[in-house]
Structures are given as structure tokens and as C-alpha cells.
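Sample intake sheet
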Amino acid sequence: LKQIKGQPHLLVAAGPEEARQEPSPRRAAGAMASAGGTLVETPTEQVESKDPAGAAQAETAATPPSTEAMKWGSIDEVLNADLIDVPQDAWYISVVCMWFTCLYNLIQGIFGGLVKMVFVCFSVGTCWIPCSDKLCSAMGSVLMGRPLFMAFTWWRYVLSALIALVANGKSRLALFMWEWESFGSGDYWWHGEGVWCWKYVDCERILKSYQDRKAAFGAVRACIPDLFPTNLLIFLPTGGQESHWYQMRDLLHAFFLDTGLKDYRTRMTQLPGKVREDWKNPKLEDLSDLPLVQRMVSKCIFWMMFGKWVSDVDADVLAKWRTLASQFILPRLVHRFLFNLGIKKVKQTRAETVEIVKKYEVDGVFYTMNGQLGEKYRKKTVVELCDEVMFAIGFAGIGGTCAAVESVGSFLQCKIPAESAAKHIKWGQYDTSEKMVAKYKANPEKYIKETCRMDPPVTSATTALMADTKITLKGKEYTFPKHLLNQYVLSMANRDESVFKDVKPEVFEPDREHLNKALTWNGAFGASDEGDFPRICPGRYLSLDVTRTIVHHALGIRAEETASTLNGHEVRVVGNERETPI
């Protein structure tokens, strides 16, 4: 049993029968299970081989590089590598010109952000002005590749979008609905560098199919590698077992997120006690103390991933993944206009997060994971993989779970969460805090799912058109090219009256008929067809368990007092979470 950085190096050699059932050795590397008659080495147990020759053969083929062959590397070199895919309209000469014409752009932006007709004109042009769709709009700029001579269209457009966001209470859902209404409340509208769709049937179709993803966020090309890691999991196109996406998702599941892992179950059992030791004299109102909530979520997520309970200081660093969320939606043009202050904060957080991994001596797992990656995708330095994984854990695990706990805490007090679409949330029959708490105790899982349906941590996601597609925007039909960015809006699909029709979608009702059809976690979490969503959030059970643990503690509830106990939910596996991957 080899040792890497004080942790076991995990190997598996599959025999002929198991190779057909479980093609990926990475699964067994993280799981506490036998691979049917061949040698399996895991952190806690070792199963003897009944087929030494087969084990030796497989080990020769599957043995990853030794520790000595893998370097940790420098996180600074990762963060300060050459920028990738910077559009011409985000060049510094464009930024300087944007500053010189700032007042003029701001005046246009105010009109664009407050007047729907003007916003549409800035986005896709208008029939009143010939060729404006091609030469005077953000869409026209995108279809030309965002050339420098059309930078002016983006100066006014980004300011219009930011002003519209502020005017809609800083709520992304409210902004999306305002833009949708601006474009005539049809099937699609334009935002950023692509088309957006919202109907449940369209979002479900995308989520169940192959997705041709690229480095983009919020339908705008992502700032890589300084703001986002270049090969972040959400940027990788869906693929088969040999694809980069499959292998990374497989590793995350095998090492961290498999609820059947002994380590996961043990840590989950111990988590309520950890929270009680750290958070004395809890009360419901404490859930309104956002720094406290974010600190506690950070500690819980890190504990569940690595078995280490971090200090308050380190938890506050990890909590920045929640507080810096607004920086991720801004395009590079805006970041540069603001002197890259936001990017600098995110880079610092990424570096500090990696240092926390080193401080608690849990970096060994990343050597193991890098060794288990296929040679084509193996990182030259281990810190690259650590940064990618910790970004996903911080951005989705910590940031997303913080959002869920904050929303549940607000709902329990009949308060509208900050930056939520206030006019689209109705309490229905649960119009007092007492009624809300009673409903939560009756079934915490349903309560959390309904809260997140109405106020989802992730409001939308970016993919791309799979073929040239005809789409109507504001009454005019366009043929958009294959690979154009396509955003699907989960938060609006969760309010589609054609699906959520037994109780109005804007009304809070945990007992609604089709609650499990909500696409909150990038798929229908808990529905009978959950396995048909290959990109459903791999950490959905972890998020649910941590949210419930923290809320239970705030309410003074022990798990056994509720109808749905911790880890009591049925665990379904999808995609490369199941024995025979799709």
C-alpha cells in the first residue's frame, strides 16, 4: 500500500467480469468495496486477490505515476498564466475609450436598464434602424466575433444590464423575467453572448441531452485562467467514459461525494456534534446572521470533504466563495473597467484556499486523484488539479449551500431573502414563522426543496446550440450558428405553470404534487427519471444534508425528532454514479 503525502495511494485492478460492469478503476479507488477477485487497496481496508496474474496485469496498465514523478507546483503560476480568449472589445484600448466616454455610456445605460424597448434595441437592434441588428447591437458584435470596432455596443450594453439588475433588486431571477418580458415573453431572449430559454420542456431537453459546453458563464465567455480555472468541470462538454468531463465527475464522486462511502457516512453522523460544539445557544434568528451561517457552512463542507474541522479564520476565508459570488457574472470588459479589483479578490481567495488544503495536510488526495486521471488529462502539476477541485467545492459546494441555508432561514421567519425576486414569492397558508417551523419539522427535505425551487442557489447554466437553429426574438426570426451560447434558466423553469399547476408556482407549498420535478440541482432531484440527467449536481445530497444539519441545530431539533432524518432520503445514482454509466 503506497503512501502519498501521508495518505494511501488508491489502486484497483479489475478482473474480466468486473471490467464489463465497472469500466472505471477510479470508482473503486474511492469506494470502500471489492472489485471481484482482484486486488483493491482503499484507505481503510484491503481485499486479497484471488487472481494474482490478473491483478499484476491490470496494475501494469493502470498504475499511475509515483509521487516523485508528480510535482505540486505553484498556485501563483496557475493564477498568473497567460489569459485565454480575450475578445477585442475587452482589450485595454477599448477600456480606456469606455472611460473617456463614460458619461455618454452611462446616460445610454440608464435608458437601456430602465426602458425595455431601449434594452432590446441595445441587445439585438431594432427594425426602425436599418442594419442595427448587425452593426449597432451586442448580438451583431457577437456574431462578428466581438471585434474592436464594435466595442461601443458593449460599453452601453453592459451598463444597461447592470442598471437593470440593480433596478430589479439585484435579483437575477427578477432580471431574467424583466428581460424576458422586454422581448415579448416568448420562448427566447438575448442576453450577453447568447440566447436564453426558460420553458420547462426546453430546459429538461437540454439537461437530458449531450451538452456542448465551453468556458462560459452567464452566457458570456469566462475570464480564464485568472477568474475561473480553464478546465473547470462546468466548462467541460458532456462525454463518455474517456472524456475529461466524465473522468473529473467520476473522481469527485468516488473520492468525496459518494454517500455510500464509509468516510462520508461516518462524517455525516459526526457532523451534528461538530456543529453543536462550535455553535452554542442556537436560535432561529441566528440564521439571519449571514457571516455566522457562511462560516458554519464552510466548516461543514470542508469537514465532509476532508475530515478536518477548520478554524474560524480559515472558515472566513472559505466563506469568500459565497461573498464574492457577484464577481463571477461580470465579463472581462467590466472587470477591467473596474481595475480588475474583483479578479484580484478571487485570485487571492483561490490561493488562500489552496494554502488551507496544505495547512490541514489533505493535499495528498490530489496526488492520488491526479494519478487516477487518464494520461491525456493528467495535470503537469498537482496544484492545478487542487485548484480546479477546490474551486468547484468553494463555488458550488460552499457558495451554493450557503445560499440554500440563507434562503431556508429567511423563509422560516417569513422574510424575503436578500437579492430574491420579492414580488414573485407568496407565503400562501404558511404566513407566520410558527407555521413555517411546523412545516419544516413535518418534512425537512420537502421544505428545503420547495424553498430552493422558489429561490434557487443556481438560477441558470450555460451550454451551446448543438446545430444551426432558427429562433424568434421580439417577432423576428434569426438563424443562429451552431456553438452559439445557449443559457437555460432553471429558476424560471421551476415556475412554469404547465408543470407546477396544482398550486401556483409563486406560492410556497412543500406538498405540491410535482416538487421533485424542480430542476434546482441541474436535474429533477428525487424524480423517477432522475437518472436521465447526466449533469445533475453531483453534490446534491451533500448540500441537502449540510443544509438540514445547520437548520436542525438552529431550531434545536435532533434528527430523530423529524419525519425525514439525516441521510434518511433515498439515494439515486445517475450517469457515472451508477455501475453501468450512460
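Comment: The two ends are 32 Å apart (CA to CA). The CA atoms of residues 282 and 553 lie 7 Å apart.
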